[in-house]
Amino acid sequence: MAFLIRMGQPEMESLWLDLTTRKQQGKLDKDEEKFFKKLVKALGYLKENPRHNSLASHEIDDLTRKYGLKIFQSYLENNTPSAGRLFWAYGPDKGDITVLAIEPHPEDQKRGAYQRIKLSTFPAAKPKSHGKG
Amino acid sequence: MPTATLKCSKAARGISIVQHYDIAADAKNRISLRGATAKYFHVQALSNGSYVLQPRVLVSPDAIPARTLKMLESSVAQLKKGKASAPIDLARFIEG
Question: Which fold has domain A4-110?
Fold first, then answer.
């Protein structure tokens, strides 16, 4: 049974609209193109079989408990969590799957994102006598 | 010509030298940091032979970043109200 894939509102929906619009206009950059290809492939698997081996789908118990709704995680690339993850749930209707969120967040991939990266704080210096050799 | 520079964080502006010493690498090119207060570092080897070490902390690969979590929360809230986008059409984008 094939599922209907829906996007969570409002952020996932606008992200999908943005990606698809720019894809059709040929305005995705190289990294976005790569990411979009992986996303479409994963969504294709999700549509046909949410338990497809490539997705390594599994329920995230902590999120399920937190939101009172079964929340699953799937990988965008076979067995490679770092390549990106999809968070999804069944619903709102029978035969529907709603993609709730995606990682990496699109903001993380925008140019200049490195400027917003905070370095870990420098450890507090202990007042010691300065070593000289 | 514009150059890409990282803005100094407030913490970085207050940096002062607390130790300085000369050291020799051992037979395996290792050096020891005296009184290092971090376990993990990001190392930058510069073209002039200098090295910059920046302390790093490990983050669990399973941890969900704050922005993703925020996105998830708003989607869940809407889903609980029975709201989600219209079904998407993947056929246009699936190759082959």
Answer: YaeB-like fold (3.30.2310)
